[in-house]
Amino acid sequence: MPLQIPQIPEKIPDIKPLRRADTLGLDDPATAYIAYNDKYIIVFDFSSLDVSEASKQLSALLSDLESVGLQTEIRVGYDESLLVFVQAPRELLGNTVHHSRVKDWLYGITKKHPGGNSNSIVAGDNEAEDLQSLYHLLTWSKELGGAGITPGFGKWENISSAFPLHNPIRNQKLLVHLSKKFFLSSDDLDQIRDLWGTKVAFYFAFIQDYFLSLAFPCVAGVLAWAFLPKYSLAFAVVICIWCTVFLEYWKIREVDLSIRWNVRGVGKLKVNRPQYRYEKEVVDAAGRVQQYFPRWKRIVRQLTVVPFLALSTIFLTIVIGTVFALETFIVEGYDGPYDYYLEYVPTVMLALLLPFINNWLEKLAARLTEYENHRTEDYYEMSLTQKIFVLQSISNYLPIFLTAFVYVPFGETFIPHLRTYILSLAGGAVDPNFAFHVDSNKLRNEVITLTVTGQVSSAIEELALPYLKTNARDWWRTWRTTHTFAMGGQTRFVRGDDPIEARFLRRVRKQAALAHYDVHEDISEMVLQFGYLALFSPVWPLIPIGFFVNNWFELRADIIKITIEHQRPAPIRNDGIGPWVASLEALTWLGSLTSAAIVHLFGFHNATVYGLNTWWTLPITIFASEHIFLGFRAGVRWALHAIGSEHIRKERSELYAERKKHLDELEASSAKRGHLDVVERERRKSVRMTASDVFWTRQVEEGASMRAGLGMIRALKGSDFDEPMKEE
Amino acid sequence: MPLQIPQIPEKIPDIKPLRRADTLGLDDPATAYIAYNDKYIIVFDFSSLDVSEASKQLSALLSDLESVGLQTEIRVGYDESLLVFVQAPRELLGNTVHHSRVKDWLYGITKKHPGGNSNSIVAGDNEAEDLQSLYHLLTWSKELGGAGITPGFGKWENISSAFPLHNPIRNQKLLVHLSKKFFLSSDDLDQIRDLWGTKVAFYFAFIQDYFLSLAFPCVAGVLAWAFLPKYSLAFAVVICIWCTVFLEYWKIREVDLSIRWNVRGVGKLKVNRPQYRYEKEVVDAAGRVQQYFPRWKRIVRQLTVVPFLALSTIFLTIVIGTVFALETFIVEGYDGPYDYYLEYVPTVMLALLLPFINNWLEKLAARLTEYENHRTEDYYEMSLTQKIFVLQSISNYLPIFLTAFVYVPFGETFIPHLRTYILSLAGGAVDPNFAFHVDSNKLRNEVITLTVTGQVSSAIEELALPYLKTNARDWWRTWRTTHTFAMGGQTRFVRGDDPIEARFLRRVRKQAALAHYDVHEDISEMVLQFGYLALFSPVWPLIPIGFFVNNWFELRADIIKITIEHQRPAPIRNDGIGPWVASLEALTWLGSLTSAAIVHLFGFHNATVYGLNTWWTLPITIFASEHIFLGFRAGVRWALHAIGSEHIRKERSELYAERKKHLDELEASSAKRGHLDVVERERRKSVRMTASDVFWTRQVEEGASMRAGLGMIRALKGSDFDEPMKEE
């Protein structure tokens, strides 16, 4: 793909007014305009170090920051920590931004050279761009021209976090703006991108599109609920179609947005993660030193995921299965003392157990992923989130699977036995004529509970709890800190913070104490929700409505969450939601199996009588539905592919516009061919003598070929030679 | 992706010795070196025209050729046709080659600008490249700088063909070379590319790799045949694995070759096919006029393929099914008079019928594809060949399907009824105690016959027959032509050809009479063969050996075929075997179903007793095997993707090498940052007075931050203030 040739302009392109301003301005609205694009906070926690070690590390940190030309101010943080305020001088920041733009151009991520030369100083188009460059200055290795600060890792394990400051005014604006709008336009997404970078923006783009497209299943759901039988096949089909179309649409949308935000293929630019261990350094064809770790080795290592997932699946199945069995038994079968209270025991148990188990498994997954030794942070995250997602889906969907495919169909058969067995264990009296009847609504109730309560509880978990928690901790720490200094006894610190900085520092300390924001958690929540739809839609057609309402709030709530309960995310670039698309596709596929099975078992056949007939036709139903789904998906893909993406076409024609310039110049020359031709004819005559050209010089004279040809035609047609030529 | 900036060199790059030489040289080995890179033959058949019309068209043709600067010589052809010899002057050809190279660069197909300017004259790297440019000069529309000659279409419907001349010496060399080698290296493929262009070369690359990879199923087959039971599951699995791995390998290989041959993504460059009908011309963003035909319309039109294929499938099923039933009946059931002869009637019937039916259906398919109105020849070919392929597979595989899944399992049941029924029709005596026993070897025999005879017959069809045919026709025509001129009576023509041209002209006339070569036919043959393996491998494990042997000859035979029985193909460029990969994948997928079913029916269960049990477990078997296959395929893809393609990596690092030049210059500047830093510090001091900078100027002095920080650490650690600083 050709690129515009970089012109070295006479003068450096003029620069936007830079955003240096009163750091304290926030406190008096008069000077409210304050720069957040060039500031970064590093939290140095030396509680585990003695004075000398701490000071060593601090001086190392400061000199590393100095070495790339960053400015520092130090203030005390909570407990035994220091806040190192980092600011990039306008020349340095502007220059870094320019460099990274040029680099984007060189790697073909943007199509136009930004102009300017290697000393150019430009202002980023938005805070995110500036902060990204600042982030690179801080975190990139020294070879890449960064300070090589890697919070919590290796040399810098005592740096508990490094984060940019929230921009409260713009956060405020954004929130107000979004809460007014029902639908988010791409421009609104741009605003999010400007604040927190594309990686986060893509999540909001996804939840927005997903939310909108939910309108369709909502309508379908209401209709199905009103007019269709329970466990309706038609509804299942509709949902399956919706899932497919939405996914294929999203894939195109992802490309469009990544072109809009100039991040398409940005993955290539990602640098090695500090934890990456390489075997040797090789100099490749292009003469660059590459840190080589054999691919096949990583592949082999990644294969360990298979046993891991297999085992943890089995484990979870056993745990959940047991609790499930117990519950069923107590609820349906047990009629001894305290049964009213006992009913809740298993559920409570599970509620208490699962978090621990999951947490433990996730730790294992993290270790495993670490062992896989991925080169970039991206790959690492992908690999990890995928593992975690599988674990989550198991603990989320398994109960429903058990109800649908074990409890309801087989309950009649095994529960009495179970009861007898347990009672015999308990040594209780077995009532021989105990009859048990499966509650065929259990499935529906279970799905409703799981989805609805899920939404609510997650909302509380995400918003209310952390809010209270942080505030409490915050209050306590403020008290402690001030207290410390009161007791500290050094004259220098008696008065604590300088009063004009106080409020600013309080804000920073608060943010320093906040958690790091991981966008994948929010995405996985949406994916799990999507999964309920894809897998169990026929059970209760009104599910989508709940989701629709929830997601409208979810979107806004997540923005609040980021602004209040998390440190401002470093504006990392990404060109999509990455591996989640694959997860969504897997769920849709699986859905074509499960919903078919559900319809088959609960829709076609009386849900309480299961003959052999039910069972041996089941695989056929599943098989059919799966292949109809696959066929349909292929169709949709083909069609959407044929229609193609508007942005891609736009991009192409932009490229073409540049090429055209070159082509024109080339085609201009084709005029000359005429004379080439004449020249050639002369040449041909001149060489007529040489035997080699005999053949090609017979009809060289003007019109000779024509006369010869005409003669032949006449001859072959046997028409009279002397008749006047009609065409003369 | 950045490209090297086109330097305008002082002097035009010096040119290889051009290949103009004695056209007649072929006849005396002394002057054997002759140029085929700049000659094209146009056959003008005016048998349907009267003299004046014919001469009009001829003059139009000649002037169009002149207009782009091509040289012409005319000689008589067979019957009422003229041979228009077209030759491109070296300046014109060299310049066109240069242009198309620049165009490749502009469209990002090659990474390096070829250098030179718009008047540069270069020699193609090989005949194919030159001929391709000549082909463009002839066929491209006038707007694109071609003569707009479209043989057999529109204005030029009387041009029966236009083709480059075969290069007998190099053909000879190639054949000898290949017949000596057992394995073809990429260099050998290069030779084919040099002669006939990438489109043909890719076919040979495919058959070569396919042939090699067949070695594995051969060995497996022998082992299975020796040690495994009939219809062995293990063997079916092995073959399925092999299919998958081979396909995934081939996909990477395709990319590698297309990079090696500089044709990656060459599809973008394809021009509109003359038959393309557009609705309106729109000027797009880049200001180019585009012939617009709404995408959705094409999609809708393409949907007509569904009913078409459905109907023709049904139709073929009925035809083949009937014949099949008749045959079975006569062979197994009928014992009336002449049964010995009658046995063969149905087979003969089918053999006579099928070609007609297929031919007719293929004509329909062609019409349909025409109606779909594809923009480029490529799309048209793809769409057509895919349709034809489906039809072919039906008539090839259906008989086996019928035997495997109808005749053998159900024969016992329905054949007696069939017999009774037909006899009752025939009014013959029904023998009540007639017992029929399925010949459970029928399936194996059928597969063997179909595959083996298929190979042999196709070999005859492709080689022997056409050879005889052309020679006969050729002899007859030569006689006729000379005869005509003897009778012609015009003094000018009495002597017929100029003796020194005679042999050359005979060769050209011969080639003019040959058929156009369609590479897709050869590919589809291979794909069908692959299909037998993928679908029915467990039936007879020795099949692959037959294929292995056949394909070694097939490869060479196809080269002979092209050189002797076809006009030299125009060197069209392609970056793969296109849609055939999809067909191969479809077959592999289908294979995971069919071979599972075969193993289930013939392997697990006694092939003559089919209980309900057999049937209701069948879908489960199929379902399982399919999903194992899909899982495995996903795994292979993931692994091969992770390993990646060597060429792609090479390409990337070449790109990088170019970028690096720019980057170096940019990174050089980062040295300056040090002083930026100093400057900044001065600035900060100077502005200390302004309130806004109070915060950021407190620790501006050298080491101030450090001292402050150390103080705080000490304070917080509560260690004595006056103790000497360890690190000083």
From TrEMBL, chains A, B:
GO terms for cellular component: cortical endoplasmic reticulum; membrane. One of its GO terms (molecular function) is chloride channel activity. Residues 38-159 form the Anoctamin alpha-beta plait domain. Residues 192-653 form the Anoctamin transmembrane domain. It is a multi-pass membrane protein. This is DUF590-domain-containing protein. The keyword Ribosomal protein does not apply. It is found in: Membrane. The chain crosses the membrane at residues 200-225, 231-250, 303-324, 344-361, 388-410.
